[in-house]
Amino acid sequence: MILPMYIFGQSVLRQETEEISKDYPNLKELIDNMFETMKLAEGVGLAAPQIGLPIRMFVVDLDVLQDEFPQYKDFFRVYINPEILEESEETCVIEEGCLSIPGVHEGVRRASSVHVKYYDENFELHDEWLDNFAARVFQHEYDHLEGILFVDHVSSLRKQLIKKKLIAMKKGQIRCDYKIKKNHG
11-170 is classed in which CATH architecture? Predict the structure, then answer.
């Protein structure tokens, strides 16, 4: 089932998220719906707050990039109650966008590698290092669980340049090719 996307200005995107257990209601169905919603919106990551749920979970599909990046073939991940244990000192700036902030793309500096711990959809614990684009997507989605959006990382000057777009989004003046949650709050 396609779920509506919550858009910049809606409070759930800034809300504190809670850890979940393997007994979370309809977890498998929720995961399937998140992947389906993300695919339709042509995203590579989707965090639960973006669909209105203040829980510590996100999904990532980098398989869509396999033609250009063969290492991401079959890279479908569910991250439940994730933690960032360590970040590399090396960073890089890459342009990011977000399904909750359609039409806005800005350069964001992030760690090139991250050491993470998380549970998968079967509640098996994983402890691993992610590099390059996988690390970037993890950090972007993890930020959603902390109530942080990628536009929070851009310079004051860049924020001024996108301010009108963000204000319009808060007012519900937005168009995009996927289902969005209309009412704000």
Answer: Alpha-Beta Complex (3.90)
pLDDT at 185 over 60: no
Our separate counts of H helices and E strands in the chain read 3, 7
For the question of residue 141 being annotated catalytic, the response is yes
Q: HEC states along 66-127?
A: CCCCHHHCCCEEEEEEEEEEEECCCEEEEEECCCCCCCCCEEEEEECEEEEEEECCCCCEEE
**pLDDT of amino acid 183:** 63
Per-residue pLDDT of 42-81, as tens digits, reads: 999 999 999 999 999 999 999 999 999 999 999 999 999 9
Say which residues have a Cβ less than 8 Å from residue 129's Cβ, sequence separation at least 6: 113, 114, 115, 116
Residue 20: name the closest of 69, 70, 54, 62 by CA. 54
pTM: 0.95
Chain segment 105-124, per-residue pLDDT in tens: 999 999 999 999 999 999 99
In one letter, which amino acid is 23? D
Angstrom distance (rounded) from CA 87 to CA 104:
26
Q: Which of 96, 106, 121, 141 is catalytic?
A: 141
